[in-house]
Amino acid sequence: MLKLAGIICIFAGCAGWGVSKIGEEQYRVRQLRELIRIMKRIQNEISYGKHTLPEICFIMSEYSDAPYSLCFAKIYEQADLRNGVCLTQIWQQQMTQCMRDIPLIQEEKSILIDLPRNLGGSEETHQAECIGQSLDLLVRRCRLAEDSYAGKAKMIFSISLLAGVFMMILLL
To answer: How far apart are the first and last CA of the chain?
Structure first.
């Protein structure tokens, strides 16, 4: 009876591990979608609203979901308090800290982290085009992640169940 309880616990633990890994993949896809939404909003604020980056940070602090809303609020506050400090440095520092625990590839994170550096001091149409290029890259990454999700989910769950079966065999 104890062996049966142990086998069930091992099997359930391995299946739970697989489900948690699948959840991480879902979270990654959700974060990519959120980055796309943020980038589109920034592009629209530059193109149609003709807002500056600090103003956009204020707008995004109310518009974005956590953890990005807090990050944009901090950028806006620090840019407002320190007029002499470069907004690019504040942006990169806060975004790096904000995106530290988000399960994205560094290249995907750097799209948002390096945004002010890529915008430079050019006119609005050029800035919107630069954001559009970054947006296209994010959309491609998101599509790849979504396409590979179904296959990865099946594979991860199968491997976790097989690991549970293998451990049960070893313990018997």
So the answer is: 13
pTM (predicted TM-score): 0.77
Which sign, positive or negative, has the C-alpha torsion 54, 55, 60, 66?
Answer: positive
Report how far residue 145's alpha carbon sits from residue 35's, in angstroms, rounded to the nearest whole number.
14
Q: Is the dihedral of CA 44, 48, 49, 50 positive or negative?
A: positive
Angle at CA of residue 60, ends 48 and 45, nearest 5°: 5
pLDDT tens track for 63-96: 888 788 888 888 888 876 666 567 778 888 888 8
Closest CA to 159 of 23, 24, 19: 19
Cα gap 55→43, rounded to integer Å: 13
pLDDT at 83: 62
